[in-house]
Specification:
It is built from four helices and seven strands, in the order αβββββββααα. It is of the alpha+beta class. The chain has two domains: 91 residues, no CATH class; 45 residues. The structure holds zinc ion.
Length: 143
């Protein structure tokens, strides 16, 4: 699992995993030495606080996967920046998002040529639980 995590979630380390019903709950820790302030692009390594993000990813070994990521807020050390703190960013998920980029890509790929109802059925077979409304919302976002 450690190697898989290193490959799929850059900037994190594997902490633990467990199965709840059929769902895989994967807990990760952030290990990036620094992060870039999205407001001024200045890098900082001064940790302000810690918090948990929870989001969904593509199924791992056939299990619907939920990730708990222990990540951090940093102080922006740029005196001319208007923001005192910012949340750590990762390349596999956007800020505030509840799904990884690769999960969104897969949902959009399947739903591109299918009705939302059909897409929901195909995705469920792949181990991705999603509502028709969420599929519609994602499609609308890119159109
Ligand atoms: Zn800043």
């Amino acid at each position: 699992m450690e190697n898989l995590v290193r490959k799929l979630f850059s900037g994190t380390e594997y902490l633990s995993h467990r199965l709840e019903s059929e769902e895989l709950i994967l807990e990760l820790g952030a290990v990036q030495g620094e992060s870039m302030c999205p407001h001024c692009d200045e890098k900082s390594n001064k940790v302000h606080s810690r918090y948990q993000r929870k989001f969904s990813d593509l199924p791992i070994k056939g299990h619907p996967t939920k990730v708990i990521l222990n990540c951090r807020k940093f102080f922006c050390t740029n005196p001319s920046c208007e923001h005192k703190t910012f949340t750590e960013n990762f390349d596999f998920i956007k800020p505030m998002e509840l799904k990884t980029e690769r999960l969104i890509t897969e949902i959009l790929r399947v739903s591109a040529n299918n009705s939302s109802r059909k897409a929901k059925a195909i995705l469920e077979e792949e181990g991705i639980k999603i509502s028709k409304a969420t599929i519609c919302n994602l499609k609308n976002k890119i159109n």
